[in-house]
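Long-time lurker. I teach an intro course on protein structure, and each term I like to show students one example going from raw sequence to a predicted 3D structure in token notation. This year I'd like something fresh instead of my usual example. Would anyone be willing to generate the tokens for the chain below so I can use it in lecture? Attribution to the forum is fine with me.
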Amino acid sequence: MDEQWGYVGAKSRQRWLFYAYDRLRKTVVAHVFGERTMATLGRLMSLLSRHPLTW
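-- Reply from a regular --
Happy to contribute to a lecture. Here you go:
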């Protein structure tokens, strides 16, 4: 997983891109945009729960 930061119009309106990348298939498995909060991370983890994952 990784994250990327950006803003829309003003730096006070920060938005983050969180994504999970499959290194073997070289593809993004899931992604979400939002604030840098546990709720946004939870949305990504929910999407990932639908995929068979190994660490």
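Some talking points for your students: The CA atoms of residues 30 and 46 lie 10 Å apart. Residues 38-48 form the longest helix (11 residues).
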